[in-house]
Amino acid sequence: HAIPLFLSTYILPVTMIYVKESAYMLYDILKGDAPEALHNLFTKTSNYHNYDTRMVSKDNLYINSSRLELQKRSFSRVGTLIWNSIDLNLHSSRKQTFKSKIHQALLAILQDQNDYVD
User: Fold this and answer.
1) Is the pTM of the predicted complex or chain greater than 0.85?
2) How many domains does the chain have?
3) What is the distance between the alpha carbons of residues 1 and 90, in angstroms, rounded to a whole number?
């Protein structure tokens, strides 16, 4: 299996690189360091609801509902799911810390998959 090779070199598989790069892009978008066109793809739940919910208190992004498969696979939808799955403490961390912790978290997921296979 390839997982031990990925783990020994601290390199992620392509699908996890997509998740990692999406998280990095969302960090930049939400910090205002990305083009406005990208910023307009995402809405904070707090801007959508006028009342307190768990999603608002966690500073999550609003997930637009759609029945179309194409929309379900779009960057705006997948990116929102990725961002909402990231620990709240990382949302406000420095960029270098954020990048390091995301990479570590993805390697930990890969390690768990490797343990499951063994």
Assistant:
1) no
2) 1
3) 32
What is the Cα–Cα distance from 108 to 105, expressed in whole angstroms?
A: 5
Residue 98: domain span: 7-45+55-108
The answer to which of 1-5, 59-63, 70-74, 108-112 has the lowest mean pLDDT is 70-74
- pLDDT confidence tier of residue 32, bands split at 50, 70 and 90: very high
102 within 8 A of 20, measured Cβ to Cβ: yes
Residue 18 lies in a domain: yes
Q: Give residue 60's pLDDT.
A: 83
Helix, strand, coil shares, percent, the chain, to 5: 65, 0, 30
- How far is residue 110's CA from residue 2's CA, in Å, rounded to a whole number? 11
